[in-house]
Amino acid sequence: MDWDALPLHPGARAVARDANDLFDIAACFGGEFELLFTFDPAQRDRLPRDVPFTVIGNATPPDSGLALRGHPSVKAITCRGYQHLTGRRAG
Questions:
Q1: pTM for the full model?
Q2: Higher pLDDT residue, 91 or 58?
Q3: How far is it, in rounded angstroms, from Cα 25 to Cα 15?
Q4: What total number of domains does the chain contain?
Q5: Cβ neighbours of 23 (radius 10 Å)
Q6: Which residues of 58-67 are buried (b: 16+ CB within 10 A; e: fewer)?
Q7: Is 90 exceeded by the pLDDT of residue 53?
Q8: Which residues contact 39 (CB under 8 A, 6 or more apart)?
Q9: How confident is the model at residue 42 (pLDDT cuts 50, 70, 90)?
Q10: What sign for the dihedral angle of Cα 47, 43, 4, 71?
Q11: Beta strand 81-83 with 88-90: parallel, antiparallel or unpaired?
């Protein structure tokens, strides 16, 4: 995931205490704000041209974990809060 590519609402920047807090807000909350999907870069020209999207990173093998590029201090991506697909809280 590329930190500089994440779409951040100005309100998130206003309430975040620091870069780590801003990351938590951007990556772990507001699931209804944007839809996340993957696609084969070789097939990019097949995506609808009238639907805007932001590329925030690229997929890696399942066992490689999540990595964040460009953030000043976050080393691992771990989200706290409600885990929608499991029905329980994380962290």
A1: 0.57
A2: 58
A3: 9
A4: 1
A5: 23
A6: eeeeeeeeee
A7: no
A8: 47
A9: very high
A10: positive
A11: antiparallel
The tokens 């780590």 sit on which residue?
20
Residue 57 has what pLDDT?
82
Beta-carbon contacts of residue 65 (< 8 Å; ≥ 6 apart)? 76, 77
Residue linked to tokens 């920047």: 13
- Residue ranges of E strands in the chain: 81-83, 88-90
Supply the range of the domain harboring residue 13.
Answer: 3-40+48-90
Q: What is the pLDDT of residues 77-88, one digit of tens each?
A: 666 665 666 655
More confident residue, 28 or 73: 28
Amino acid residing at 42: A
Measured distance CA(85)–CA(76) in Å, rounded: 21
What is the token pair recorded at 20? 């780590």
